[in-house]
Amino acid sequence: MSKMSQEEDTNSTLFYARNEYYIGNFMGSVNFVLPEQGTAGAELLSYMYLSYLAMDSGRLIASDIKETNNTPLLALRYINEAFEQPNKVEDILNKLTDKVAGEDDETNIWRIATAIVYCYDEQFENALKILHGSTNLESMALSVQCLLRLNRMDLAKQLVAKMQEISDDHTLTQLAQAWVALSSGTESMQDAFHIYQEFCEKYKPTPLLLNGQAVVHLGLERYEEAEAVLREALTKKHNDYDTLINMMVLAHLTGKSQETIQRYWEQLRQFYPKSHFIKDFNKKSDEFDKLCLKYSIEGMA
């Protein structure tokens, strides 16, 4: 998470652990770190714990990183606590922002962790404030995601251009280009496809990369191709969050049976009951029921 040199040592464990995390090969990232866990510094260990978070194995973080930990890894414990106890997000953010203000954190872990929790709580403007001005590619990539969530495509493109000036061929720069291309619409979506395809060939297909390809196929109405890559993604992880959502979208677009759609929905509810997708759906469903009740009562009056 520290400032990345354009002439980075590509033989280092840190390089490989970091890159595997970026492309969504979370177990691969863990496997690079584990042999050095006993002697590794906080920056290398952070990718193992971030990968555990991505694999829904936060219990390992709670077990390994105690509240008394005096390294930046404590920030990752706070992320897990925020995910597990959404009602405590405000208190956790207070702890994180205090650390960002008071720590000289060369690893950037506190800053990234704070931004992640802000994003989890959909406070994208505050996440951008925490990340503002950084020339760290991880901070910049996360800022691009925030800007896209805020529909500020203009600023996202500007930031990607700055990332290209720092390191055009860096994995994060390439991924940020793909995110912007996906959000730009059909004319640019094929550019995103080529980036994901290149990474699949250079490394290995992961659910993250395959879902990127699937979104391109869906946007360009190439439904058979979308189904093929989504089914491949399910072989990598049978309950992957993004894959299940995209399979449900595909089922809607191709007129699949309600039973098929419901099956994906039930899997999402089972495996990701606290996810924003489920919470947002439940909120809209409750609002719809209230409106129905309101008009039913008014019609009887």
What is the strand and helix layout of this fold?
Blueprint: H1 13-22, H2 26-33, H3 42-54, H4 58-64, H5 74-84, H6 89-102, H7 109-120, H8 124-131, H9 137-149, H10 153-167, H11 171-184, H12 186-202, H13 207-219, H14 223-236, H15 241-253, H16 258-271, H17 276-300
Helix pairs in contact: 1-2, 1-3, 2-3, 4-5, 5-6, 5-7, 6-7, 7-8, 7-9, 8-9, 9-10, 9-11, 10-11, 11-12, 12-13, 13-14, 13-15, 14-15, 15-16
How would you explain this protein's 3D organization?
The chain is mostly helical and 301 residues long. Helix content is 73%, strand content 0%. The chain has 17 helices and no strands. It has helices spanning 13-22, 26-33, 42-54, 58-64, 74-84, 89-102, 109-120, 124-131, 137-149, 153-167, 171-184, 186-202, 207-219, 223-236, 241-253, 258-271, 276-300. The termini are far apart.
**Residue-averaged pLDDT, rounded?**
91
Q: What form results from the Cα inertia axes?
A: globular
Proportion in helices: over 70%
Span between termini: 63 Å
Strand content: under 5%
